[in-house]
Amino acid sequence: MILLMASLLMIGCNNTSKKTEEAAADKPSAEWVEVTLNVEGMTCNGCENAIKAGVESLEGIATVESSFEEGWTKVKYDKSATSVEEIEGKITDTGYQVKGEI
């Protein structure tokens, strides 16, 4: 019984890995760029986390960092999947003001 379960688990894992590899092969390569935005209205770590969660919900986001003390948000993203305008819109929707790029 244990051998049967282990065999099924291994088969399932192998199929999942192959599907993931196939999906990655079909996807065009990402065009990663980074932007740092001047963001006003952040007052604490909670603000940083709210911006991070909002921006990470967009397609094609690799990393998001914010500093409420210095008033910036840095985003690394796939420009073939999203845009600076979409990122700025998400930050604005979260309740903060984007005052351009730094």
Mind explaining what this structure looks like?
By secondary structure, this protein is α+β, with helices and mostly antiparallel strands. Helix 2 crosses helix 3. The termini are far apart. It has three helices and four strands; from the N terminus they run H-E-H-E-E-H-E. The chain has a four-stranded antiparallel β-sheet with strand order 2-3-1-4. It has a domain of 70 residues: Alpha-Beta Plaits, CATH 3.30.70.
Q: How is the topology of this model organized?
A:
Elements lengths: L1 H25 L5 E9 L4 H12 L4 E7 L4 E7 L5 H11 L2 E5 L1
Antiparallel strand pairs: 1-3, 1-4, 2-3
Helix pairs in contact: 2-3
List keywords for this structure.
single chain, 102 residues, Alpha-Beta Plaits, four-stranded antiparallel beta sheet, 3 helices
Low-confidence stretches: 1-26
Q: Give the radius of gyration.
A: 19 Å
Give the SSE order as H and E letters. Answer: HEHEEHE
Number of helices: 3
Name of the CATH first level of the domain at 32-101:
Alpha Beta
Give a nutshell description of this structure.
The chain has 102 residues and is an alpha+beta fold.
